[in-house]
Amino acid sequence: MSVGEVLQYFGDSGDLESNKRWGSKDGERVLNESEGWILNDEFNERRVAVTEDGTAIHWWLRSPGHDGAYAVCILAKRGEIIMDGHDVNDADGFGVRPALWLKL
Questions:
Q1: 48 exposure class (CB count in 10 Å sphere: 0-12, 13-18, 19+)
Q2: Residue extents of the structural domains in the chain
């Protein structure tokens, strides 16, 4: 999925469009407006992916992060969208949520 599809299917608070972004300070989320790199909203819980054994995992989106080696991702336990992305060469603990279009 892309960022747009995640917002479409899991809920869109409008924060991305209005540049309401968050950052991290001392392990806590702080509002940084357009300087932030985290989309943290009321739909976080819907975006959490869990395995069959109930373990929450990070998952990739196909949208690029801040450069070609990074992809946007969803954090495991928080469900936040990390807009800067995470290094695709450091994929330990990451998964993919398959998505497909079916024409019936």
A1: middle
A2: 3-96
